[in-house]
Amino acid sequence: MLKKIIIGVVTVFFAFCSILIVKQHIRYPRGTQVVYAMQEPFTIGPFQLEVTDVEGLSLTEFCDLYDLHMKEEDFEASYNIQVILVRLRVTNQSENEQNVPFSGVMISSPDYANSIELFSAMDINDIGQEGLVLQPQETREILLPYIEYGDSYGVAEGSLLDQVPLRLSFRLYPEKTVVKLNDLW
């Protein structure tokens, strides 16, 4: 009896989720992808964004540069841990103060996707618990660190930026907005 109840609940949940997905696709029948290059400004909602620079650092270099206490010795050395550091210029174009939701910005390759290292981003950008709030017409450059394991990409040594096609994804639907971080795509 319990098995039938569990199967029924799972079936109802699956049907409910399917209905929501179908409604979303009816509302936005075609998702599109817009691709930008580095140093090409674009707009999402009330923000004008521009990826101005990207660099790859070892985890030790990154921690030493920003005086963070996350050392490579805490991880297995075989992973080839790197930090991809993306510099992003954000301008609030609205007439109201806005909270910048940069935690949803993903870095991806053809095979993997990864989210921002949020606590390191808050530390190196001096962002408190309230998040990053921009006043009207205020511009700020922020650094987005992504901790990547070279072994996950099949890169035993050397920079991921030189060997793996990487891009940032800012929004997924209805319009996927991406910025290419290197010329390997």
TrEMBL record:
Domain of life, per lineage: Bacteria
Keywords in alphabetical order: Membrane, Transmembrane, Transmembrane helix
Membrane-spanning parts: 6-22
Protein name stated in the entry: DUF4352 domain-containing protein
The species this protein was found in: Grylomicrobium aquisgranensis
